[in-house]
Amino acid sequence: MAIVGVRLSPRALRFAAAGLVVLLVAVSVWLFGRPPPPPPTVAVVAATEPWPAGHEPGDFTTIEVPASAARLFVTPAGLHGRVPAVPIPAGAVLSSAMLADPAATASNPEATLVTVGADLSLWPPPGPAPGDTAVLSRHPGGCAAAVLPVLATTVDRLVVEVTPALAEELSPYQWWAWEASVEQWPQCERPIDAAGVN
């Protein structure tokens, strides 16, 4: 075999082949061995202290999450004019469901926002929305432990503004909830007892 008129010895051919293999390996490592670029990220809010429900947000820091997951969390701009709908522990990364709309701020300084577990199967579709009035009862169609405006909602929970005494009464139980066609509904005559029977 001759290259540009020069005849190579078998030994020189082996060295040339080895050099070609080394060159191909080096190029492959350079092309395919590099780590892929990191995915784009977005800064989201994480509480650095406990935030009480119904009050201004407390101290927070931001952490980076993949941009594809950003819709699940709250960015610092998303905090504007909103308050926690539920108590938020330190270290929690905030989601939109944990915050109430600006209209949901406590109008009574002694009141607080609580999240109440509720069976919403009696509520006509599409279900409760902020501004609706909910009847909360231990039994379907029973007397009302409370008739309250809905401030925020999830699939099986309602966020309502209550006094501390009513929060204590409502918190331990799962409630039936339906829309009040009028704000009057027969109130329970006595408080809920320990067994939850009224």
Structural account:
This protein has two helices and twelve strands; from the N terminus they run ββαβββββββββαβ. It is elongated, with a radius of gyration of 31 Å. 15% of the residues lie in helices and 26% in strands. The termini are far apart. Strand 10 and strand 11 form a beta hairpin.
Relative strand content:
25-35%
Sum up the overall morphology in one term.
elongated
Helix content: 10-25%
Category from helices, strands and their pairing: alpha+beta
Order of helices and strands: EEHEEEEEEEEEHE
Give the beta-strand count.
Answer: 12
Rounded to an integer, what's the Rg over CA atoms? 31 Å
State the distance separating the first and last CA atoms: 103 Å
Question: Which residues sit in consecutive blocks of at least 5 with pLDDT less than 50?
Answer: 193-198
Give me the secondary-structure topology.
Layout: E1 2-3, E2 6-7, H1 10-32, E3 41-47, E4 60-66, E5 83-84, E6 99-100, E7 112-119, E8 133-137, E9 146-149, E10 152-153, E11 157-162, H2 164-170, E12 175-179
Task: Please give a quick description of this structure.
With 198 residues, the protein is of the alpha+beta class. 15% of the residues lie in helices and 26% in strands.
Provide keyphrases for this structure.
single chain; 198 residues; alpha+beta; six-stranded mixed β-sheet; two-stranded antiparallel sheet; 12 strands; 15% helix; 26% strand; elongated; disordered C terminus
